Structures are given as structure tokens and as C-alpha cells.
């Protein structure tokens, strides 16, 4: 059935209805309409809340599309303490079904929240929060964006005032869009080739958060067909080095979600990565990397793992008196998350039992 409908869509290019039919078919093609909101993106980041006379407080924000087709915010205030962000109101309403998502803190002042999504006309936009409300920005200047693109974003600069966003073009190539000096620009740099069409993306700047200068260590991850299986490609772009690509060893689902976190290593300029993805059976695995030693020999299954299959993943990391902690989130239906939480990942790495977080059961 898929081949017939795909061929039919190829004959509709001259019709104004063709793009809408194509988007609808992409939504249905793999898993059916019941899973559209399951496959809509998930985005998260940690932030530090400061108040007079109190120590900094680590919190997390998570963005998702609810079954009403609008974009909402989860707020994590501490272990097992979830709330509905923005008083339970949507932060954007003009959202395409099944949209990918990406989020960062940065921009002109370095402190705005940017959540990237596709609107109902499949334009790439950012809704921007500054603590006093949310504003939907103008259409961003992307070219030839694929209907089934994923999104991934990071920041760079002393004040996080440069933003980089990757998306997939209709050719299958990955293209970079960046924000600097108050404006958006399409990158004239290298366009990546050979990713799987519809690949999920994960992206991190491994040095930015603690360097306090313009150093960078960008790490981009995507899926590619490799011989008789599917592999994760790791592309690194590190200041002072050539861009490098590496095929990672684990086999993965072709439609797996991807999520990555980074934190400072023990030596000067060293850092660690943890990459999360679904193995061919659909369970979430963890793959570790250090700038001093490279990738671990194999990926491992966390004791607190869960099944993710093709569902979107997001991950964040933060440190406290227990050490470096990691939170992995899996989209579970239109209005729920499955939370995997690990304490002291650099030492004992203790994983809690996965917890379901349901939007409808939370307080504002």
C-alpha cells in the first residue's frame, strides 16, 4: 500500500493539495494516525533558578505537543516533583501535527528560551520566552526542508548569543541554520550527506557551559544505513580540529530517538558524553564517551531502562551534592512522559525505577 500511495503523491506535485497530502501520508506511513502525537518531538534543557538569599536551584523544562495540537511546557522542580509550566497554558498554538522540537537558552541577551517547531504550514519557527511570557517569531529562513525533518539546536559564545539549528533537507542532507547578532542565517558551510531520511538528530556543545569563552566542541548524531543494519553517525566539530565523522558500533532501530548530554571531565578541557537511543528491540541503551579515552567498548542497558521503540527521546544533565545526574525522557502518548533518572553517573550511576509523568494529573 505504501508504494502505491507514494507513487500517487509523486504525480500530485502540480496540485496545490499535494504538499498537504504528502505531509498526511508521512504522518501515517510508519505507525498509523493513533501514534502521531507519540511521534511529535520532545525537547528539554536544565536551568538554574536564582532567588535572593538562596542557593541556585536546578530545574528542568520539557516541551511537548498535547492532543489538542498545541505546544506545552512541563516543569521539573526536583526529584518526583513535576508541575505544568506556563500556568498550564500553551506556549504556541499554530503547531503542525507530529512536529519535531528543539530547545535552547540563549539569544541576544543569552537568557531567552527558544523552542523550535514547525507551524501548521510546515514553516520553521521559534517561540521565545523571556520570563514574562512567550512570543512566536517570524518564519525562519530555511531552504528545501523535508516534511519529516528532525530538529536539533545548541548555543555558542560567552553569553550563548549564537544559536545553531540542524534540520534535514528534501535531498536528505542535513543543513545548518544559525542565529548571530540578532539575525538568522543559512550556513554556507559543510552540508552533511548520507543520513537516513527522517533520521532523528541529537546535538550538544560539550565545552560551552563551563569554558566562559568562545571555545566549542560540537557533537552531532544521526542515523545512517550501514551495510545490513542501521548505525549512529557521530560528527565532531572541535575548535582547532578538522570536522570528523565516526560510525558508532551499536546496531539501532532506523527510527530510534536520539538524545545526548555532556559534562565537564576531571582534567583541564576534558568532557564526557552520554548518548541514548533504542536498540533493535526498542529498549533505551546508554553509550558513554570521554574526550580522554573515546567511546566505551559497548553500549549498556541502564538498570532503569524502558522501552522507547520509535518514540522521541530527550535528556538533560546537572550536578548537585550527589554528583552528576542524568534524566532521560521518553514521550508516552500525547500527554505523558516516562522519566529515567540516574544519580552520580560518573561514579556509581544509580538508576531509579522509570516513572510515568502524566500532564493531566499535575498541578500548575
UniProtKB/TrEMBL annotation:
Family the entry assigns: Belongs to the fungal fucose-specific lectin family.
Descriptive protein name: Fucose-specific lectin
Domain of life (superkingdom): Eukaryota
Gene source species: Mycena albidolilacea
Amino acid at each position: 500500500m505504501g508504494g502505491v500511495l507514494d507513487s500517487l503523491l509523486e504525480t500530485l506535485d502540480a496540485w496545490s493539495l499535494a504538499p498537504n497530502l504528502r505531509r498526511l501520508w508521512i504522518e501515517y506511513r510508519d505507525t498509523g494516525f493513533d501514534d502521531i502525537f507519540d511521534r511529535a518531538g520532545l525537547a528539554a534543557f536544565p536551568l538554574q533558578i536564582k532567588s535572593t538569599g538562596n542557593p541556585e536551584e536546578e530545574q528542568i523544562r520539557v516541551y511537548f505537543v498535547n492532543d489538542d495540537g498545541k505546544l506545552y511546557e512541563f516543569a521539573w522542580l526536583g526529584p518526583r516533583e513535576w508541575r505544568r509550566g506556563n500556568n498550564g497554558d500553551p506556549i504556541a498554538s499554530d503547531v503542525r501535527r507530529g512536529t519535531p522540537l528543539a530547545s535552547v537558552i540563549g539569544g541576544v541577551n543569552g537568557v531567552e528560551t527558544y523552542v523550535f517547531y514547525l507551524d501548521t504550514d510546515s514553516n520553521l519557527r521559534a517561540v521565545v520566552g523571556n520570563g514574562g511570557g512567550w512570543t512566536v517569531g517570524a518564519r525562519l529562513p530555511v531552504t528545501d526542508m523535508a516534511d519529516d525533518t528532525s530538529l536539533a539546536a545548541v548555543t555558542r559564545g560567552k553569553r550563548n548569543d549564537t544559536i545553531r539549528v540542524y534540520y534535514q533537507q528534501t535531498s536528505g542532507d542535513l543543513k545548518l541554520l544559525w542565529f548571530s547578532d540578532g539575525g538568522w542565517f543559512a550556513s554556507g558551510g559543510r552540508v552533511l550527506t548520507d543520513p537516513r531520511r527522517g533520521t532523528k538528530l541529537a546535538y550538544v556543545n560539550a565545552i560551552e557551559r563551563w569554558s566562559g569563552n568562545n571555545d566549542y566542541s560540537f557533537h552531532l548524531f544521526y542515523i545512517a544505513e550501514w551495510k545490513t543494519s542501521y548505525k549512529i553517525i557521530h560528527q565532531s566539530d572541535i575548535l582547532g580540529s578538522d570536522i570528523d565523522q565516526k560510525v558508532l558500533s551499536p546496531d539501532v532501530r532506523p527510527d530510534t530517538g536520539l538524545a545526548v548530554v555532556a559534562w565537564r571531565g576531571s582534567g583541564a578541557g576534558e568532557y564526557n558524553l552520554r548518548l541514548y537511543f533504542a536498540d533493535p528491540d526498542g529498549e533505551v541503551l546508554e553509550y558513554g564517551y570521554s574526550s580522554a579515552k573515546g567511546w566505551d567498548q559497548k553500549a549498556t542497558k541502564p538498570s532503569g531502562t524502558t522501552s522507547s521503540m520509535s518514540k522521541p527521546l530527550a535528556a538533560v544533565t546537572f550536578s548537585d551534592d550527589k554528583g552528576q545526574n542524568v534524566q532521560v525522557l521518553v514521550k508516552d502518548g500525547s500527554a505523558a512522559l516516562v522519566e529515567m533518572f540516574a544519580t552520580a553517573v560518573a561514579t556509581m550511576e544509580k538508576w531509579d525505577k522509570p516513572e510515568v509523568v502524566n500532564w493531566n494529573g499535575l498541578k500548575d
